[in-house]
Write a structure and sequence with these properties.
This protein is an alpha/beta fold. Helix content is 24%, strand content 17%. The protein contains 7 helices and 11 strands. The strands form 2 sheets. A 9-stranded mixed sheet has the order 6-5-4-3-2-1-8-9-10. It starts with a strand and ends with a helix.
């Protein structure tokens, strides 16, 4: 089984979410797009198509909040077969322990998005401890979402330091001002960038330009920084390079349309609900100057 190639499928399961984070775009949590009721048949169809190419399907679920969908685990139970743990989940971690007791056997990677306004720290710790107690422990990362607002930042850092002191795999998650429309970060302040880079083991010494507020203590001086793309070091020019998205990974939109990647290069491949999918057999030449999506860049 180890010699069989894998195809990762990142599936946007509608936008139902039990949180209402102000920094999250409305179209990702306004509960308007719900997957059709035949989602289990669609999952099975896609899994069969990929296995016919002698590859293992590995589902990567995003939302909305996937754990709120009642058919998620039953769908996985139907299609997983002997490959039950080759899946990834991005979740806010709010689901009950009873839900996690079943879900843990379907995922080998779990990313918990910690949203300070809504998340309950004790519950997240309880969930993490449970995930670490099972025989085949999944890889877990806890991402603390922080904005550039001073009070939000300090709250997030406090949560980060508390969880880190308890030994949890925690990271700060910086946000974009035009999320899903590009890669421009919120205007984080100098002290925030310095702290973030410190958590990554890097130094950050920008040229100070203009004081926004010199009244606060010196340790929290804020400056205007010209660079808004500090974390996109891997965004080298991709145009005309060979891209294996479509072979090694696929993207499924909430309406069932399938593409090679979130960039939609090469056009639609078909629809899993209509069951008219034609999988690519060759890589594609990248038509874009830069690849802006992390999943596509894999």
């Amino acid at each position: 089984m180890e010699d069989i190639e894998r195809t990762k499928i990142q599936w946007l399961w509608g936008n139902y979410c039990n949180y209402n984070c102000r920094y999250c775009p409305d179209h990702l949590h306004n509960n308007q797009f719900k997957p059709p009721p035949d989602i289990r048949n669609a999952m099975g169809y896609l899994a069969r198509m990929i296995r016919m190419e002698n590859r293992i399907p590995c589902f990567d679920f995003t939302g909305g909040e996937p754990s709120q969908l009642p058919f998620l685990l039953t769908g996985l139970r139907d299609v997983s077969g002997n490959f039950g743990m080759n899946n990834r989940l991005v979740t806010n971690g709010s689901a009950s322990l009873e839900w996690w007791e079943e879900a843990v056997y379907y995922f080998n990677q779990i990313e918990i998005s910690y949203h300070p306004r809504y998340a309950k720290m004790n519950h997240i710790i309880e969930v993490y401890n449970f995930l670490m107690s099972v025989e085949d422990t999944p890889a877990v990362d806890i991402m603390i979402h922080v904005t550039n607002k001073d009070s939000d930042w300090l709250q997030g850092v406090g949560i980060y330091e508390t969880l880190k002191a308890k030994g949890l795999p925690v990271h700060l998650k910086l946000l974009y001002s035009n999320f899903t429309r590009g890669n421009t970060h919120l205007p984080y302040k100098t002290y925030q960038w310095k702290y973030y880079m410190w958590t990554k083991g890097k130094e950050f010494e920008p040229e100070d330009t203009a004081h926004v507020d010199a009244a606060i203590e010196p340790a929290r001086y804020r400056h205007v920084i010209e660079s808004t793309d500090l974390l996109q070091e891997d965004q080298v020019v991709h145009k005309a390079k060979t891209c294996y998205a479509g072979l090694e990974q696929l993207v499924v939109w909430h309406n069932g349309d399938v593409y090679r990647g979130w960039c939609k290069a090469g056009g639609k491949l078909g629809n899993v609900f209509e069951q008219n999918l034609i999988l690519p057999t060759n890589p594609i030449e990248c038509p874009f100057d830069k690849c802006k999506n992390g999943f596509d860049r894999q």
